[in-house]
Amino acid sequence: MIEVEGNLYEVDSFLRGKRIQIRYNPFDLSLIRVYKDGTRYDDAKAAVINNKRHPKMPDELEEQSPGFISSYLENLKKEQEEKQRKELGTTSFVKLEDKTWGETPC
């Protein structure tokens, strides 16, 4: 048995007493994936479910989430553009002197 966020799950007997890695969606604790040394094993089977989601996750996604993601992406874009400007530097245009190529102007 393993405990995840107040819930109990059964794992393969082979894995009992060993250090394992688990992966799960914090919004849905019904599915717990089990890994050991990079190998995936059978999913943990729920024995006692007290929490359907991670206790720190909100019950519903806030309406502001898309705005937050949008502003985050906008900031990433600005940072990338600034990085490119620094890498490319500025273009320097040298003032060309007016030179006459021949004796007579065209």
Can you lay out the helices and strands and say which pair or pack?
Elements: E1 2-4, E2 7-10, E3 21-25, E4 28-36, E5 39-48, H1 65-88
Antiparallel strand pairs: 1-2, 2-5, 3-4, 4-5
Descriptive keywords:
five-stranded antiparallel beta sheet, 106 residues, Mu transposase C-terminal domain-containing protein, Transposase-like_Mu_C, 23% helix, elongated, alpha+beta
Broad structural category: alpha+beta
Backbone shape? elongated
Query: What value does the Rg take, in angstroms?
Result: 30 Å
Give the proportion of residues in helices: 10-25%
Low-confidence stretches: none
Number of helices in the DSSP assignment: 1
Q: Major sheet: order of its strands?
A: 1-2-5-4-3
Average pLDDT? 80
User: What's the number of extended β-strand segments?
Assistant: 5
Sequence of secondary-structure elements? EEEEEH
First-to-last CA distance: 94 Å
